[in-house]
Design brief:
With about 240 residues, the chain is mainly α. It has a single domain, classed as Glycerol uptake facilitator protein (Up-down Bundle). Helices cover about 70% and strands about 0% of the residues. α7 runs antiparallel to α8 and α7 packs across α10.
């Protein structure tokens, strides 16, 4: 498997599980309707576990542009591969969310809540305050990225990027700091599916909230960059 396809497939898996569990919880007449936030966070965590498990041997399983940028900043990944990885991640996220739309299409048709439909594809804040929303995304991605860096670098952490620890970090972030913004912590996970929401003929859908879309892009990049700096300092670079 090529690294590009591994990132594509791994990120698609994250969205199939993640957008899928949100669909199961928020759409009408599903088996899991109204089952709650804990169910959602577990679904996303299993998606990350599956995506990393599949992609790790072939691409390192970044599955997140912010993580890829951080690895470039700590000189553990070639900047020349950055565009291809980010492209694969965005396309994978788009594909995964599209499959979820097909799987739940009949439930979209019997659901009137346009905000719930959008939440399946992309994040939005519980309280809209762009500065604090940006800060929340930066904090969440900082925690994720610093954990990944210590797992991924042999001389510092576990020795290899491991699926279960990363999934547990994502689970913990969802449970602890996911409330204000829905913890995108991944620009591809939000941007790609937001575009799919924009183009799909979803009955009764609302606008795709592009005025907020920069927050789950810039916030994770800031958080990951700070994590890279902290990692370099702590490693004595």
């Amino acid at each position: 498997m090529s690294a590009f396809f591994a990132e594509f497939l791994g990120t698609a898996m994250v969205l199939i599980f993640g957008s899928g569990v949100v669909s199961n919880v928020v759409l009408n007449q599903t088996k899991g309707n109204n089952s709650g936030w804990i169910v959602i966070t577990f679904g996303w965590a299993v998606g990350v576990f599956t995506g990393v498990l599949i992609a790790a041997p072939y691409s390192g399983a970044h599955l997140n542009p912010a993580v890829t940028i951080a690895l470039v900043l700590v000189n553990k990944f070639s900047v020349s591969l950055l565009p291809a990885y980010i492209c694969a991640q965005i396309l994978g996220a788009m594909f995964g969310s599209l499959l979820v739309w097909f799987a739940y299409k009949k439930h979209f048709e019997v659901t009137n809540d346009s905000d719930a439909k959008m939440a399946i594809f992309c994040t939005s804040p519980s309280i809209r305050s762009y500065g604090y929303n940006l800060l929340t995304e930066a904090i969440g991605t900082f925690v994720l990225t610093i954990a990944v860096l210590y797992m991924a670098v042999p001389e510092v952490g576990l020795g290899s990027l491991n699926a279960l620890p990363v999934a547990l970090v994502v689970l913990g972030l969802g449970l602890s700091i996911g409330g204000p913004t829905g913890y995108a912590i991944n620009p591809a996970r939000d941007l790609g599916p937001r575009f799919i929401h924009f183009i799909l003929p979803i009955p009764g859908k609302r606008n795709s909230d592009w005025k907020y879309s920069w927050v789950p892009i810039l916030g994770p990049i800031i958080g990951a960059s700070i994590a890279a700096l902290v990692f370099l300092i702590s490693a004595g670079a």
